[in-house]
Amino acid sequence: MSTVKNSTTTEKAKEIVSSQKDDGSLELTDTVSKELNVESKESLISSVKSFFGNKLLDNKKLIDTALILSFLRKTSSTDTSPELKERVEKAKKYLKTELSSDEKIDELLERTDAVVVEYATKKIIKEKAEQSVVEEIQKTITEEEITEVIEIQNSEGSYEKISDKITEKLGVITIENISSSVCIPDKRVRKFDTKVWNTFITTAYCNKVLAKHKSKLTKQNEKALVWLHTQINDEKLEKEILESCEKIVAEKASNKKKESSWTSLSTWGSGWGKYIDDTAKSTTGYQAIDNIYHTADTPAKPKTESNAKPGWSDIIVSTEEANDPEFDTIEDSRYHTQIYNFSLDDLKHIMNK
Fold it and tell me: Counting C-beta atoms within 10 Å of the first and last residue's C-beta, which end of the chain has fewer, N or C?
């Protein structure tokens, strides 16, 4: 919980409340949804409405204000800034004017608190998992790979293309999926050309994946940042984009690792199934183990539990999504009933005996 509490800087918090209206209400922006790693601000609003139903009607200002207050008090320290503290108090007075009852205010904030904490916690867990993958990759980096990443840099600091060594670690990267993944509302971001994005991604890769070799990349990174500044001429925006690209690098590295692991598991599954089959043929229990063989041969994708009952648990996964058979976020509990005290390498060792 302490990690969640300190996840938003005072500077970012001030930015979020900067558009406060005269009546004290706050407007929910894409900045908040981005900070919580949520697809859109509408998703946050729906999470609150799904609990209260029609009780809040369509009072978007009320929900916006409550969500931002919860975001600030759960992910930042509002007492560190007199300006921030004043705006928070003004927003609370707005809620009091709209709802009159302290009980209603507490009920609303209790729910918006839960929404914020759920999303913030999931984001932190996801980022830590991705960082673990990045650290694994860092251990495999060679001098040759570093050279191949930076040797294609142009003399002025830009990168015409992304090194093949980077795509080996991250998978295919296109301008479309980069620009759409960078959740920055500034319209200029959508107009950047390929060279700008390639330079951002390569620099982000150097910062994130090649971090342990930072001293060898100082000159190249500085040249890249200088060139980017000549193209954008906005230090704050440049920093924001680079941070977003570093997150994209970590996410794509993690996804690539998962894909590789799943491919290995699928290949290994066939071999393990054959091992069971051969062993089973020498026993009287062949038919029973034959069933296991066919299961192991084709690793199954977890199914979803449809027709979930609506309730506060639907904050993160809405009732509509839970009822959709195509939606596979909620895993079938049957896939969590057994814990095995062995690793994939252990089983491979058995197979090779």
Answer: C
